[in-house]
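Notes for week 9. Today we move from apo structures to complexes. The key idea is that a small molecule is not decoration. When we ask for a structure prediction with glutathione present, the ligand SMILES becomes part of the input, just like the chain. The input block below holds both the sequence and the ligand string. Read it once before you look at the output, and try to guess where the molecule might sit.
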Amino acid sequence: MPELQIIGGSASNFVWVTRIACAEKGVPYALVAARPHTPEVEAIHPFGKIPAMRHGDVTLCESRAICAYIDRAFDGQPLISRDPVVAAQVEQWISIICTHIDPLWFRQYLAAYIFPGTADGSPDRVRIEAALPKMVPQFEVMNRAVGKTGHLVGETFTLADAYLMPILFYMRTRPESSALLGKSPHLTAYLDRHVARKSVHDAIPQTLPGSTPR
Ligand SMILES: N[C@@H](CCC(=O)N[C@@H](CS)C(=O)NCC(=O)O)C(=O)O
Protein backbone atom coordinates (compact mmCIF):
# COMPACT_ATOMS: atom_id res chain seq x y z
CA MET A 1 0.00 0.00 0.00
CA PRO A 2 1.51 3.39 -0.92
CA GLU A 3 1.96 6.06 1.73
CA LEU A 4 -0.93 8.49 2.08
CA GLN A 5 0.30 12.08 2.10
CA ILE A 6 -1.62 15.04 3.47
CA ILE A 7 -0.07 18.08 1.83
CA GLY A 8 -0.30 21.43 3.60
CA GLY A 9 0.63 23.27 6.78
CA SER A 10 -0.34 21.92 10.18
CA ALA A 11 -1.80 25.28 11.23
CA SER A 12 -4.54 25.14 8.58
CA ASN A 13 -7.88 24.21 10.09
CA PHE A 14 -8.81 22.26 6.95
CA VAL A 15 -5.53 20.30 6.99
CA TRP A 16 -6.24 19.56 10.65
CA VAL A 17 -9.66 18.11 9.75
CA THR A 18 -8.11 15.62 7.32
CA ARG A 19 -5.55 14.60 9.93
CA ILE A 20 -8.34 14.00 12.46
CA ALA A 21 -10.10 11.89 9.81
CA CYS A 22 -6.97 9.78 9.25
CA ALA A 23 -6.51 9.28 12.98
CA GLU A 24 -10.17 8.42 13.61
CA LYS A 25 -10.03 5.90 10.80
CA GLY A 26 -6.65 4.50 11.87
CA VAL A 27 -5.02 5.40 8.56
CA PRO A 28 -1.27 6.14 8.75
CA TYR A 29 -0.21 9.23 6.81
CA ALA A 30 2.69 11.57 6.27
CA LEU A 31 2.18 15.31 6.61
CA VAL A 32 4.06 16.97 3.75
CA ALA A 33 4.55 20.62 4.66
CA ALA A 34 3.54 22.99 1.87
CA ARG A 35 2.10 26.47 1.66
CA PRO A 36 -0.94 27.38 -0.43
CA HIS A 37 -0.15 28.45 -4.00
CA THR A 38 3.14 26.57 -4.17
CA PRO A 39 3.80 24.33 -7.17
CA GLU A 40 3.21 21.07 -5.27
CA VAL A 41 -0.20 22.33 -4.11
CA GLU A 42 -1.18 23.94 -7.41
CA ALA A 43 -0.41 20.66 -9.13
CA ILE A 44 -3.41 19.22 -7.26
CA HIS A 45 -5.74 22.09 -6.26
CA PRO A 46 -6.82 24.30 -9.17
CA PHE A 47 -6.88 27.33 -6.85
CA GLY A 48 -3.78 26.39 -4.85
CA LYS A 49 -5.52 25.71 -1.53
CA ILE A 50 -4.52 23.29 1.19
CA PRO A 51 -5.04 20.48 2.05
CA ALA A 52 -4.14 18.38 -0.95
CA MET A 53 -3.66 14.63 -0.80
CA ARG A 54 -1.56 12.07 -2.63
CA HIS A 55 -2.00 8.30 -2.29
CA GLY A 56 -0.13 6.44 -4.98
CA ASP A 57 -1.70 7.55 -8.26
CA VAL A 58 -4.64 9.19 -6.51
CA THR A 59 -4.44 12.94 -5.99
CA LEU A 60 -7.24 14.95 -4.42
CA CYS A 61 -7.96 18.39 -3.04
CA GLU A 62 -10.71 19.86 -0.85
CA SER A 63 -10.91 18.55 2.70
CA ARG A 64 -14.38 17.04 2.33
CA ALA A 65 -13.35 15.03 -0.74
CA ILE A 66 -10.16 13.90 0.98
CA CYS A 67 -12.14 12.76 4.04
CA ALA A 68 -14.59 10.89 1.79
CA TYR A 69 -11.69 9.08 0.15
CA ILE A 70 -10.09 8.22 3.50
CA ASP A 71 -13.43 6.87 4.68
CA ARG A 72 -14.18 4.75 1.62
CA ALA A 73 -10.72 3.54 0.60
CA PHE A 74 -9.77 2.09 3.97
CA ASP A 75 -11.27 -0.43 6.35
CA GLY A 76 -12.15 0.58 9.86
CA GLN A 77 -14.88 2.44 11.65
CA PRO A 78 -16.89 4.49 9.09
CA LEU A 79 -16.31 8.24 9.38
CA ILE A 80 -19.82 8.90 8.14
CA SER A 81 -22.72 6.87 9.47
CA ARG A 82 -24.41 4.49 7.05
CA ASP A 83 -27.73 5.73 8.45
CA PRO A 84 -29.06 8.18 5.84
CA VAL A 85 -30.57 10.62 8.33
CA VAL A 86 -27.49 10.75 10.57
CA ALA A 87 -25.20 11.02 7.53
CA ALA A 88 -27.26 13.92 6.17
CA GLN A 89 -27.22 15.66 9.56
CA VAL A 90 -23.42 15.38 9.63
CA GLU A 91 -23.20 16.84 6.11
CA GLN A 92 -25.61 19.60 7.09
CA TRP A 93 -23.33 20.75 9.92
CA ILE A 94 -20.19 20.42 7.81
CA SER A 95 -21.84 22.64 5.22
CA ILE A 96 -22.88 25.21 7.84
CA ILE A 97 -19.34 25.26 9.27
CA CYS A 98 -17.76 25.67 5.82
CA THR A 99 -20.18 28.28 4.50
CA HIS A 100 -20.98 30.33 7.63
CA ILE A 101 -18.60 29.66 10.52
CA ASP A 102 -15.23 29.37 8.77
CA PRO A 103 -15.72 32.43 6.49
CA LEU A 104 -16.60 34.66 9.44
CA TRP A 105 -14.74 33.27 12.45
CA PHE A 106 -11.56 32.25 10.64
CA ARG A 107 -11.28 34.05 7.26
CA GLN A 108 -12.58 37.41 8.52
CA TYR A 109 -12.02 37.61 12.28
CA LEU A 110 -8.92 35.47 12.92
CA ALA A 111 -7.30 36.43 9.63
CA ALA A 112 -7.55 40.08 10.68
CA TYR A 113 -5.04 39.15 13.41
CA ILE A 114 -2.78 36.75 11.58
CA PHE A 115 -2.85 38.19 8.06
CA PRO A 116 -3.85 41.79 8.84
CA GLY A 117 -2.49 43.43 5.72
CA THR A 118 -2.07 46.68 7.68
CA ALA A 119 0.91 48.93 7.04
CA ASP A 120 2.51 48.19 10.43
CA GLY A 121 1.32 44.57 10.73
CA SER A 122 -1.02 45.36 13.62
CA PRO A 123 -4.43 43.62 13.76
CA ASP A 124 -6.99 45.02 11.35
CA ARG A 125 -9.44 46.44 13.89
CA VAL A 126 -11.93 47.44 11.20
CA ARG A 127 -12.32 43.82 10.04
CA ILE A 128 -12.40 42.59 13.64
CA GLU A 129 -15.07 45.07 14.75
CA ALA A 130 -17.12 44.31 11.64
CA ALA A 131 -16.98 40.57 12.33
CA LEU A 132 -17.88 40.57 16.03
CA PRO A 133 -21.59 41.57 15.88
CA LYS A 134 -22.15 38.85 13.29
CA MET A 135 -20.24 36.29 15.37
CA VAL A 136 -22.42 36.77 18.47
CA PRO A 137 -25.56 35.07 17.09
CA GLN A 138 -23.45 32.35 15.47
CA PHE A 139 -21.79 31.54 18.80
CA GLU A 140 -25.29 31.32 20.32
CA VAL A 141 -26.38 28.91 17.57
CA MET A 142 -23.32 26.70 17.94
CA ASN A 143 -23.59 26.78 21.75
CA ARG A 144 -27.15 25.49 21.50
CA ALA A 145 -26.18 22.93 18.84
CA VAL A 146 -23.73 21.12 21.13
CA GLY A 147 -25.75 21.70 24.31
CA LYS A 148 -27.90 18.61 24.23
CA THR A 149 -25.39 15.78 23.73
CA GLY A 150 -21.96 17.42 23.66
CA HIS A 151 -21.75 16.60 19.93
CA LEU A 152 -23.12 18.25 16.81
CA VAL A 153 -24.94 15.09 15.75
CA GLY A 154 -26.13 12.30 18.00
CA GLU A 155 -24.11 10.90 20.85
CA THR A 156 -20.75 10.35 19.18
CA PHE A 157 -17.86 12.34 17.70
CA THR A 158 -18.47 12.69 13.95
CA LEU A 159 -16.80 14.39 11.00
CA ALA A 160 -18.95 17.44 11.78
CA ASP A 161 -17.17 17.77 15.13
CA ALA A 162 -13.83 17.29 13.33
CA TYR A 163 -14.66 20.33 11.18
CA LEU A 164 -15.65 22.51 14.12
CA MET A 165 -12.89 21.67 16.58
CA PRO A 166 -9.92 23.32 14.82
CA ILE A 167 -11.83 26.57 14.34
CA LEU A 168 -13.01 26.52 17.94
CA PHE A 169 -9.47 25.84 19.15
CA TYR A 170 -8.30 29.05 17.45
CA MET A 171 -11.13 31.07 18.99
CA ARG A 172 -9.41 30.64 22.34
CA THR A 173 -6.30 32.37 21.05
CA ARG A 174 -7.82 35.85 20.61
CA PRO A 175 -9.49 38.04 23.22
CA GLU A 176 -12.90 38.82 21.72
CA SER A 177 -13.58 35.26 20.56
CA SER A 178 -12.33 33.98 23.92
CA ALA A 179 -14.88 36.25 25.58
CA LEU A 180 -17.60 34.89 23.30
CA LEU A 181 -16.57 31.38 24.33
CA GLY A 182 -16.78 32.50 27.96
CA LYS A 183 -20.46 33.30 27.36
CA SER A 184 -21.03 29.92 25.66
CA PRO A 185 -20.83 27.27 28.41
CA HIS A 186 -21.82 24.32 26.22
CA LEU A 187 -19.33 25.27 23.53
CA THR A 188 -16.57 25.70 26.11
CA ALA A 189 -17.29 22.29 27.64
CA TYR A 190 -17.37 20.80 24.12
CA LEU A 191 -14.00 22.37 23.27
CA ASP A 192 -12.41 21.22 26.53
CA ARG A 193 -13.70 17.70 26.06
CA HIS A 194 -12.84 17.13 22.43
CA VAL A 195 -9.49 18.91 22.36
CA ALA A 196 -8.33 16.09 24.62
CA ARG A 197 -9.49 13.48 22.10
CA LYS A 198 -6.42 11.76 20.69
CA SER A 199 -7.22 12.39 17.02
CA VAL A 200 -7.69 16.11 17.70
CA HIS A 201 -4.95 16.53 20.28
CA ASP A 202 -2.23 14.79 18.28
CA ALA A 203 -2.67 17.27 15.39
CA ILE A 204 -2.66 20.48 17.45
CA PRO A 205 -0.34 22.82 15.52
CA GLN A 206 3.03 23.36 17.14
CA THR A 207 3.02 26.96 15.98
CA LEU A 208 -0.04 29.08 15.36
CA PRO A 209 -0.93 30.41 11.90
CA GLY A 210 0.86 33.51 10.79
CA SER A 211 4.17 32.16 11.93
CA THR A 212 4.22 28.87 10.01
CA PRO A 213 3.13 27.68 6.59
CA ARG A 214 -0.61 27.18 6.47
N1 LIG B 1 -12.83 24.36 0.77
C1 LIG B 1 -11.44 24.09 1.05
C2 LIG B 1 -10.88 25.25 1.81
C3 LIG B 1 -9.37 25.15 1.92
C4 LIG B 1 -8.77 26.45 2.42
O1 LIG B 1 -9.41 27.52 2.44
N2 LIG B 1 -7.49 26.37 2.83
C5 LIG B 1 -6.79 27.54 3.25
C6 LIG B 1 -5.90 27.22 4.43
S1 LIG B 1 -6.88 26.85 5.88
C7 LIG B 1 -5.95 28.04 2.10
O2 LIG B 1 -5.38 27.26 1.37
N3 LIG B 1 -5.86 29.35 1.98
C8 LIG B 1 -5.09 30.00 0.96
C9 LIG B 1 -5.94 30.84 0.05
O3 LIG B 1 -7.18 30.87 0.22
O4 LIG B 1 -5.39 31.48 -0.80
C10 LIG B 1 -11.29 22.76 1.80
O5 LIG B 1 -12.26 22.32 2.45
O6 LIG B 1 -10.23 22.14 1.74
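The longest strand covers residues 4-7.
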